[in-house]
Amino acid sequence: MPEVSLQDWNAFLNQHPAAHLLQSAEWGELKSAFGWQAVRIVAGEIGAQMLFRQLPLGFKVAYLPRGPVAGRPAPDAGQQFWEEVEALCRAWKAVFLKVEPDAWEASDQGPVIRNPLLVESRYSIQPRRTVVVNLRDSEEDILGRMKQKCRYNIRLAAKRGVTVRPWDDLDGFHKMMLVTGERDIFGVHAAAYYRKAYDLFHTAGMAELLVAEYEGQPLAALMAFARGTRAWYLYGASTDAERNRMPAYLLQWEAMRWARLHGAEEYDLYGVPDADEATLEAQFESRRDGLWGVYRFKRGFGGELKRAVPALERVYNPLLYRLYLWRMAGREGG
Fold first, then answer.
1. What gap in Å lies between CA 322 and CA 318, rounded to an integer?
2. Does the pTM exceed 0.90?
3. Is the residue at 40 inside a domain?
C-alpha cells in the first residue's frame, strides 16, 4: 500500500501549488481531530488525501474531497492509483467511497482522472456551485468588476469608520458564529473546531482571521484560507449591530487583499444556491431560503459563477449503502 507520511505528502503537494485546500495536510489533521482519520497515498504521479469516518460494527465511510491531486496525466494514467484506492477502501471496510473531483464543469483545466467503477452520486458534501473572484489584476481592476452597489458599500464602510484587522479571539469569533447561525439558519461547529483550524492553518501561514470593527466593537469576522494560487472564504459571521455601516463588504475586500499578498490568483467565495445564473438573477431579490441571502451578498463582488463536476461513488456494501440513502432522503425531507 503506497501510504505516505505527513512529511512526504507535503513534499508531493509542493509540486502542485494549485491543489485544493481540502487536500492539504492541515485539513487532514483538522478533520482527524473531529471524527475522521486521514490517509495519504501516492501512486506514480497521482496522489490523494482520503478521509475515513467510523461507523458501527467496524465499517467506515471513505471520502476523497476535491481530488485526486495530479498535473495533466494521460486519461488512462490513473489505473494504478485507483487500484490502490480500491485496496485501501476494502482494507478499511468502507461501505462506500465518495469522490468529489477538483474540477469545474465546462472547464479546460485538464481531464478528471477516470475510474469506470465510480458512478455519479445523488449527494455532494461540498457545495457544487460557487462564485470565484479573479485576483490576477490590479486592485482597481478587481474593484471595477464589482457591482456598483458592492463597490459603494466597501467605500461607505471605510468612510463610516469601519476598520479591519487580524484577530485572534477565537471565542469571540465562535460567539459571533452562533449569532449568525441562529439568524441565518445554518449549522455551526464547536468552538474547538475553529480554534484547531486557526492553530493549524494560521501557524502554517495559510489562514487569517479578520475582524471588522467600529470604535473597537467587533461587527463581523471571517476566516480566509490561502494555498498556492488559490484562496477560499470558508467561515464568516456578523452581529446585528451597526449593519448600516456595511462592515461585511469591507471585510471581504480586505480578505481578498490579504489573499493577493499571499500569492492567490483567485478567491473562492464557497457556496451559493445550485441553480443556473439566469435563475439566480431572476430570483435572488425574492428568495430568502437556503443560500439565497448568501448569493445576494456574494454576487456583488464581480466573480465568475462556477459549478463543480458531480460527486462520484463506489459502493462496497449495498445494504448499508441503502440505509445511508434512506437517512439522506430523510434529511432532505426535513
1. 6
2. yes
3. yes
